[in-house]
Structures are given as C-alpha cells and as structure tokens.
Specification:
Elements lengths: L3 E2 L2 H21 L5 E7 L3 H17 L2 E7 L5 H13 L5 E4 L9 H7 L11 H9 L7 H13 L7 E5 L6 H10 L3 E5 L6 H5 L4 E4 L17 E4 L3 E2 L5 E2 L4 H4 L5 E2 L6 H27 L1
Parallel strand pairs: 1-11, 2-3, 2-4, 5-6, 5-7, 7-8, 8-11
Antiparallel strand pairs: 9-10
Helix pairs in contact: 1-10, 2-10, 6-7, 6-10
Length: 289
C-alpha cells in the first residue's frame, strides 16, 4: 500500500481563490476586510511568518497593517496598541505573532484582543465557544486539519481519532473539533505510556508534538489517515515532520507531507478567520443600527 498524499498547498490555493472572490464582492459593497499584525522583537522565524501572512493578505485583497515593535516594548505599551486596534472599525482582525519576549505575559496579551477580532482563535471566550459547540473564531491549524479531511472526503463520524499533543493551539482544539464531527477521540501526550498501543488503533492520527520523525511506520494502523502537523529541521537542514515519512507512506491510506501539507492550510484558514471576524462585526453594526 502507498498512501495518497494530501496536497495542502493546492488545497490552500483553492481556499485563497474562494476568499479572494468573497473579498472582491465585499469591496463592491463598500467593505474591505482589515487585518492588523503585531510583531514584537526581531526573531527571524517570526519575521518570516509575518511576511508570509502579509503576502497572503495582499494576494486576496485583505488590507494588512503590520506593527513592528522593538523587543524592549513594555507590556502596557503593547496592551495600549491592542486597545486602540480593538476600537478601529476598519480593523477586523488582530494577530499578535508568538512567541513574545519573556517579559511580556502572553495570556494577558491574548485576552486583551476583542473576541470578535481574535483571528488566531486563542481568546478564552472563543475557546469556551469551541468547547460548548457555539459559533466562534477558532485556531487556524486545527481548522485547516478539519478542512483537509472534509475536502479529501475522509469520513470522521464513527472513526477513532488519536491526537498526539495537548497544546491549546493544536492538540486540544483539534480533539474538540473531531469530537464535534462524531469521532471517538483519544488524546495522547508526553506522559502517555506505550504510545504505539494507541496510535495503532487510530483511523485518523493527528501528530502535533514537535519531535522529528517520532512516529514510525510500525506505529500506524494500515490504511489510516495521518495528519502530520510537526515542522522540524534536522542537523542537515532538511525539514521533516513528526512522522517518519518514508515509513508512513508505505502503511497509511492518506498522509500529509512536510512541507506542503498542514502549513499552507494554516495561513489559508487565517484568511477565512479574518473574513469571519469582518462578517461578525458587520452584522453587529447592523443590529446596532
């Protein structure tokens, strides 16, 4: 058996075209979605991520405003900027690029973003809405995973999904989204004994731990759908995921490559979240009017 590769790059490009068409229609009606991105410090990886997000916005017609702040920025200064952006009607989404410098409390910063402008889906209000099954803005990577499963026609209801990783960015929200689609969900993590005994049961295996090639082919159920969220750079400079690709491709039914799998979908879902934020604010303005 050779796994069918899920092409996240082409799937993300299709989503971008859909977003671009929607943005064009909105502009004709006088609404241009706006996204503010805040970068604190000069971390090279963060700067690259911000450039990619800025480019993606430009491609689809979303107005992007980047605030580049020095690493010495005080927490109160950052909160003040967020407060200003919360009040700006032409800014529909706010994204604070992580990680922040150690002297700034990440939780406090994320909680300061208005839930309706929280394009990353990290605000506790949106986390609570995901938990209870209400409409909200949810984290981009898990949303990208669910979109991949949907567009690839991979059944979720009644399947056993195993999620490795319990972060609030990927693991926990992915588990909740799979549960809402009627999967039976198991969450594994660094304290899980005999990890392979769980992974071998998975019809859908989501790997989000950040350890290069830790999931071997022998740990995968034949025919399973394997979603590799990890991006790790090896000593030779090669980018690999959390899954040993050459082994997994011989066992799995579906497999996301690294790079070109989940990564492009994350930015595509950020664009969709920006539209969702703009829509929620426009509807709120109508109700007030």
């Amino acid at each position: 058996m050779t796994a069918r590769l899920i092409d996240g790059k082409s799937m993300a490009q299709q989503i971008r075209l859909e977003v671009k068409e929607t943005v064009s229609q909105w502009k004709n009606n006088g609404l241009t979605p706006g996204l503010a991105v805040i970068l604190v410090g000069d971390d090279p990886a963060s700067a690259t991520y911000v450039r990619n997000k800025e480019k993606a916005c430009q491609e689809v017609g979303i107005r992007s405003v980047v605030h580049r702040l020095p690493a010495s920025t005080r927490e109160e200064e950052l909160l003040a900027l967020i407060g200003t952006l919360n009040e700006q009607p032409d800014i529909h989404g706010i994204l604070v690029q992580l990680p922040l410098p150690p002297h700034i409390r990440t939780d406090r910063v994320l909680e300061h973003i208005h839930p309706f402008k929280d394009v990353d889906g990290f605000h506790p209000v949106n986390g609570g809405k995901l938990l209870v099954g209400q409409e909200g803005i949810f984290p981009c990577t898990p949303m990208g995973i669910m979109e991949m499963l949907k567009r690839e026609g991979i059944p979720v209801a009644g399947r056993h999904a195993v999620v490795i990783g319990r972060s609030h960015i990927v693991g926990k929200p992915a588990a909740l989204m799979l549960l809402q689609e009627h999967a039976t969900v198991t969450v594994c993590h660094s304290r899980t004994p005999d990890l392979a005994s769980f992974t071998k049961q998975a019809d859908i295996l989501v790997c989000a731990v950040g350890k290069a090639e830790m999931i071997r082919g022998s740990m995968i159920k034949p025919g399973a759908c394997v979603i590799d969220v990890g991006i790790n750079r090896k000593a030779d400079g090669k980018l690999v995921g959390d899954v040993a690709f050459e082994e997994a491709v011989q066992v799995a039914g579906w497999l996301t490559p690294v790079p070109g799998g989940v990564g492009p979908m994350t930015i595509a879902m950020l664009l969709k979240n920006t539209l969702a934020c703009a829509r929620m604010q426009a509807e709120g303005a109508k109700k007030k009017g």
